[in-house]
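Entry under discussion copied across for reference:
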Amino acid sequence: MKQKKIILGVGFVLRLLSLALFLYTYDDCRPEASLDVRIDKKMAAGMADEFIHEHGLNTQGYERTVTLEFKDQFYLKKTLGMKETTRLIRHAGVPCWSWQVRYFLESQKEEIRVYLNPSTGEIIYFSHALMDDAAAESISHDEAKFIAEKILLSLNKYEEFELIQDSFEELANRKEHVFEWKAKNIELADATLHVYVAIAGNKLGHYAKYVEVPDGFYRLYQREATPSMIVYFVFGVLNVLINIGMLVALFLQYRYSKIRWKFSGAIALVFVAVSLIEVWNFFPVTQSDYYTALTKNMYLTIHLGTRLFGILLTGLWIFLTCAVGDSLSRDIGIDAFPVLRLLKERNFSSPQLRERIAVAYILGLLRTGYVTLFYLVAIRFVHAWKILPSNYAVSFSAYLPFALPLTMLITDTLTNELKYRLFAISFFKKYLKLTWLAVLLSSFFWVFGNYNVAIFPAYLKGIELVTLGVIWGFAFKRYGIETVLWAETVFAFILVAMPLLRSPVDFFHTAGIILVVILLLPLGLFLFPSSGENSSLNLPQGAKQ
């Protein structure tokens, strides 16, 4: 008992140090640190409306959507590093994040898009899509240039520009005048900051502020990504074999061992229910992606029908994976779901339950420190850089931004853990007999068969996540799958909460606080008086030693 207290005490200190390291170096090595949302959806829509009306366009009768999106600055991260790229995005106006305000009519090609910097409200993109034969009043090229220069100066108050393109095109019923400038006073390695303006007839048709990267960069990027993509493909093929093995194991377990069908069905139903909540929560993104070549009802029917079919199919797969994995784990003596068992027994004060909750928080917070330290070292010695995952932007577009880590716990994390921890470790352990080999193999499949390349040099992903997968594997064997699930969720909570907490917008800041409160809720079980029971592992009835 004394030894456990010492271990938990050391774990508590380490997780505080991990969190402190993560917070202190957040701007240095986290790509989402560049996200600075000071303008909410309503303000962004109002600014977009004002800009549109200033340029003589009428959006009466149009539908409007507002979502937060990003265009990752790969080149800047690779050449200037994460910290400098974050500074340029947050303080120098280099475009990356944007509130995308879209105005459209059902089944009409004509639409208007306005993208605004979520920190300053600066317009970074505008497009008025017209039919090719749409008519517009004609003006001279010099008049169009005067309008374009006025727009350039009104939207870019700090940069100095030089004109690099000056042309026009004759269409059937209008002229389009095109101008492009390059910023002279912003250093972006070999890249340049450009502003593109097109005048359609006598009105603004297109505006874009963007980073022009050197020729050949994307070919270099593809070459760097190729080895990882090959490994991803190979393990994808091997994952098919795992799926086949799962079906064979299911048949064998059905014949020779007890399968808890109702339990697995309940897990699958939870997945389906949470997935449907996730579809509702991110419905603003679905609306924004409306393809106007279809009627809106047809688009929604196709999109939501496809999503529902995918959810049901995945739910079926979760049902089967959980059934066979749970049966295999009991055969080899692993208590895979101890927390659910203790909660079902209403044993809230059990030392077993408290131990697993404590370990989950320790592992989750240690992961923040581990990943932070890993990339600080990698950035320093091998110039590592990382592509930004899209889900950080998606959380700001949702009805309930704080719900993202909760739905991810079921729709993403649970799916992976059932397959690569519950089933794979139990399967390899039963038939290969060696625990360390089972854990190592499952970790390789988890990393290379599930995560696409987002880190460069690509081999870093293997070093980082295989190591983590091994730790997660032994944690699953000792403490059960819920501990690993919550450890993953703690890490996700922190990553999603940080941009929300840093936002001065009340709605988003409050969502971040709600996330923190939800994150701490399981610690409430420590408020129950201790039952004093021995915390040794009690295997469920039927488990074989």
